[in-house]
Every structure is written in C-alpha cells, then in structure tokens.
Specification:
alpha/beta, TIM Barrel, 9-stranded mixed β-sheet, 6-stranded parallel β-sheet, about 20% strand, globular
C-alpha cells in the first residue's frame, strides 16, 4: 500500500485549466501522485469533497521586500490566507539588491524606516545568502529595480547617463541575472528614472532578453497619458524581444477611462507582432499610493530633503497647492492610509481633515507630506469597476495583489493596510467566477498558478503534477470571498481552507499556522 505524508482526497483538482475529480498525494516537499489514492495511507488526510484543489497562487506584483515586512513580519500570513504561496519582489523599479553602497537602501525610505535596517550585502547573490538565514512563510523570487540601479550610480540625482555609465548599469544587471534575478522592473515616472534615455533602456532590455528574463513596468503615466506610456514600453519590448508585463494595469481617473479600448488595442497589436506582452491587475477600485505622487514633477526631483525644502518655501508651497487644486481631486474619497508620525489622520478623508482644521484640502496635503517626511499613503477611488471585468476576461491577463504581506500578530505602526494585502485572490474568485462567471473557475485558477510560473520560467511550480513542489491550495467555492474595508486594520479572506507550502501546512481550516516553509527561488 502506497503511503504519503499528506493525501488530499475527493476534491476537484486543477489539471491544465480544467477541474477534474482526483486525489493528490504529497511526500515531504513534492507531489508524488495525482489520481485515485483511495487505497493509499497518509499521515494527514484532507477531505476535499466539494472543494477545488489548486496549485499555490503566484503573486507577480508584490512589495513585501521593499516594505521590509519580508524581514519584519516574515510569516506573511495575510498572503497565505488568500492562497498565495510564491511572491515576486523587486517591483516598480525598486529592489533590495544590488546595492553599490549601503546608503542605496534609502531607495525604500518612502515605505520603510531605513534607520532600522542594517544591510550586509551588495549583490543579489549576497542578498539571497542573507535572506536564506531567515525563516519566511512564502517562496520568494526577485527582479532588479531599474531605479535601484540608477540610485547606486547617481544617488539622489537624476539625469541622462553617458555610455560608460550605461555600461556600469548593464554590468550590474547582468551579474544580478546570473545570480538568480528574474529580470528588471521599471517605474519611468519616478524621479530617479524619468531622465532615462532610449539607449539606456534598450541596453538593459537586451541584457534581460539574452538571459531569458522578463521586464516588468509601472507605467510612466496611468492617467491621461497612458497611451504614449504604453507605446514607449511596448516599442522597447518589440526591439529587444523580451517579455513585457505591465504591473497593476489600470486607468486612473474618469478622465482617462475612455482610453481603455485603445490601450488594449496597443497591447494586442504588440502581441500580434510577436511581443510576449501581458499585464496584471488587482481587483479593487481604490488605489493605494504615496500622497507625494500628487506633487508636480519639478517638486519631486532631488530626493527627500529637497522635496521638503520646497514645501517649506512659501512661494514654492503655493505653486504646489495650485498644482494640486488643478487636479480636481475628490477629497471626500481620498482616505489617509498610513503616516510616519501623525497617526491622528489615519482612516480619515482629506475632506474631513480639512473641514475640522479649517484649512484648504491642498494645504492639508502639503502639511501631511511635510510633517511625515513624505511617508504618507492614501486610498483613492479612481478605477472603473467595469474595467476590472474587462481585464479579468483577457486571455493574457494575470491577477496580482500589488500588496504587502503581514503577520497576524503584528502590523506596521501607523499603517492602515489596503485590503488587497489580505484578499486580492479571494476577491477575484468571488467577483469573476463565483458571482458572475465571467471567467471559469479553472481558467481563473490557471491564471493564478501555471500561467505566472510559465511567464517567469519556473519549471517545477504552478502545477499539480508528479515531481512538482507541493504548493497547494484547497478552497471552498461556495464560501470564497473577501469584502473590502478601507478603514480597518483587520481584514478577512474566506474560503481558503488549506494551504501547503513545500509540503508543509501553512493554513489549516482557514487559519494560518506557525509554519515557516518558504524558500528562495532563483532563475535557473
């Protein structure tokens, strides 16, 4: 009689993009059998009758690394309880390696208190070596941040690079790819990157293409200038023949919503010309973003000290306020989510704070940014719910959290977490498969697992097949849900009954365990 450490019995198992009745047998960290295991014995028997059994979900846009919770809250319960077993870090132009000098870690200061971080690595290889000394709850892979590369060369400055400097970036990137990074990420609208030349980007993209990696992009503009922002990235992808993925794809603000058909036409046109162009998105209508991103372009150059000096200059502050007023923002929908120092604002709208203080909303925004030294974020209602349904139905779309992992018993100070950090995947299942059947269960689960594994080039995860690592999710299709709440520290994800990471039980009957079973995943 065959014996297994775990048998998941009687469920509908994802094979390809179809759900088929089967059992799954796990021994140690691998899947050893998929089929009829009714005569087999197991140390743990999981009754999956009436439930779906899926490979663990792979989150392609995740920020646990640059928000530092991968180290400070390493079990990452908020990701596990929604079925995420593998995360890709180094997104949106920022990564924890390579660092040319230790002060380069200041690139993440808008999300974490870097004064508490002691870096003892420079290269991606050394970063992986340090991370391997820590227990983590999810599998972790990384990209190289383009902004991180530029910071290593220029510090807080931003300008076009000469040929020798481009070569230095290429050398750093090439070494990082050899040490296991999966590609490069960009955020070309950020202060550190906006002066990047076509030549610089072309050299870097070609370096990634030669290594068989991916390029991933926070678009320069997700609003009224989204079309030229897309053209720039897709053109580079066509030239270099590298994989292109648009991170957290969305059109921000009603004034830009009508551009969606043309934006999708651009992506599909590139795909028809042989570019492996895709996007991921999160299933929420509110964004989570830094408040300082509302400042004019001229005010966000030169690093934190210079930005604060602009806010302290009466004439420049007035110009900043005038710019913010010109954006015609909906202050009643803009919720303060996190701050560095002033926690009294958290959970309130900008309109509420302005009314209670007697100040203009624009002055409140400037004051919050200055007092909190840029470290203040907001939730802002800016995404069309109809767009989410259109994006979910696209064959070349992926779902991501664009979130951060938290432990159940810890939370960052002064932090109101976006619900996507707790329930992006359960909400997607609820919205697109359970409620409206816009996307079949099997196809959506396939988008969560095998498709991102294939896109990244991970060969032994993302499927429930013999010899694959046992990252497994057992979910109840009747119960799966995750109601969004933007004013609470506590969020719930329902319907994920069991999660296995490398064969270990990470979630048991919907509750995260004390297990740390995650591993570092390097590009082969």
């Amino acid at each position: 009689m065959a014996s297994y450490s775990v048998i998941i019995k009687g469920g509908s198992v994802l094979r390809g993009n179809k759900l088929e009745p089967s059992d799954v047998g796990i021994n140690k960290d691998k899947i050893e059998a998929v089929g009829d295991l009714s005569s087999a014995s197991g140390d743990l028997i999981v009754d999956a009758k009436g439930k779906y059994v899926s490979p663990g979900f792979i989150d392609l846009t995740n920020h646990s690394d640059t928000h530092w919770t991968l180290f400070s809250q390493p079990r990452q319960d908020s990701l596990l309880i929604q079925g995420i077993t593998t995360i890709l870090g180094g997104n949106c132009g920022a990564s924890l390696a390579p660092l040319v000098k230790s002060s380069d870690i200041e690139g993440i200061q808008k999300w974490a208190d870097v004064r508490e971080i002691n870096t003892n690595w420079r290269t991606v290889g050394e970063f992986f070596e340090e991370l391997s000394k820590h227990s983590i709850g999810v599998n972790f892979a990384t990209l190289v941040g383009h902004g991180t590369l530029r910071r290593g060369l220029l510090g807080d400055n931003s300008r076009e690079l000469d040929d020798s400097e481009i070569e230095q970036l290429r050398f750093l990137l090439e070494g990082s790819l050899k040490e296991g990074a999966f590609g490069i990420s960009t955020s070309l609208g950020a202060a550190h990157a906006k002066n990047s030349s076509h030549k610089e980007l072309s050299v870097l993209f070609n370096t990634v293409a030669k290594a068989g990696g991916i390029t991933k992009h926070h678009l320069k503009d997700e609003g009224k200038n989204i079309l030229p922002s897309l053209v720039e990235i897709l053109s580079l992808g066509k030239e270099s023949r590298t994989k292109i993925q648009i991170s957290h794809f969305k059109l921000l603000g009603k004034q830009s919503w009508d551009y969606l058909p043309e934006a999708l036409k651009l992506i599909e046109g590139a795909r028809s010309e042989g570019v492996d162009a895709t996007f991921d998105f999160f299933p929420y209508t509110r964004t989570g973003s830094p408040l300082y991103s509302l400042l004019p372009e001229w005010a966000i150059e030169g690093g934190r000290k210079k930005i604060i000096s602009f806010l302290q200059d009466p004439e420049k502050r007035k110009s900043i306020s005038d710019h913010i007023k010109s954006l015609t923002l909906h202050y009643e929908s803009m919720i303060i989510a996190s701050t560095l120092k002033d926690s009294t604002a958290i959970g309130k709208t900008v309109r509420q704070i302005a009314t209670s203080s007697g100040l203009d909303p624009e002055e409140i925004i400037a004051e919050l940014i200055e007092v909190n030294e840029l470290n203040v974020s907001i939730f802002n209602e800016a995404i069309s719910p109809e767009h989410l349904e259109v994006l979910a139905a696209k064959e070349y779309s992926f779902v991501s959290s664009d979130g951060v992992g938290y432990d159940n018993k810890m939370r960052m100070p002064f932090d109101l977490p976006h619900p996507r950090s707790f329930g992006a995947y359960t909400r997607a299942l609820e919205l697109f498969s359970k409620n409206k059947n816009l996307v079949g269960w099997g196809e959506l689960l396939h988008k969560f697992s095998a498709k991102p594994a294939e896109f990244l080039g991970i060969k032994n995860r993302g499927k429930l097949e013999t010899g694959f690592f046992a990252d497994v999710v057992v979910l109840d299709p009747e119960k799966v849900s995750s109601p969004p709440d933007y004013t609470s520290l506590s969020h719930e994800a329902y319907g994920i009954d069991w999660v296995f990471v490398n064969g270990k039980v990470a979630v048991r009957n919907g509750v995260a365990t004390e297990e740390f079973a995650g591993r570092i995943i390097k590009k082969a």
